[in-house]
Specification:
Bound molecules: zinc ion
Order of helices and strands: HEEEEEHHEH
Number of domains: 1
Helix content: 25-40%
Number of helices: 4
Strand content: 15-25%
Largest sheet: 6 strands, mixed
Amino acid sequence: MKSQREVEREYNKLLQDVATKDYYKVDLTNRVNCYLCSCGQITKTKDLDAGTTPMFIKCETCGKDARSTFYQDIRPDQEPTYEWYRPALKEVLKLRSKETTLDHVLSGGLLLRKCNLSLTVPR
Ligand SMILES: [Zn+2]
C-alpha cells in the first residue's frame, strides 16, 4: 500500500499536470457521455473535471456492463444522472486500500457519483 506521503506527492503532481498539460485542456461545457447497455438503458453522465473515464460502467437499471459511446450524446432529451469528478486529496487518501481505484485516480482518472438532482431541478 502506498504511504500517505507518496499519495500526496503523486496527487500534487497530477494537479500540476491537470493545470498544464494539453491532455486536460478540454471544454467541460456540456461534456456528456452516454453508456449504452444491452438491456436498452442509456446511462447519461456529465464530466465536471477533465480526466480519464472508463469504457464501461454498471448500468443504472440492471447492473450489467454499459458501454461508452465516447461522448456521443445519443439521447439529447435525457438529463445526465451521474457525474464524473476528480476527488480532493482528502477523499483520495481514503482510497489507499483500494489500489485499482487509487491508481486510476492518480493517473488522471475521474470517479463517478450520482448527480445531485436537487441542485438542478427547480422546486
Ligand atoms: Zn442494463
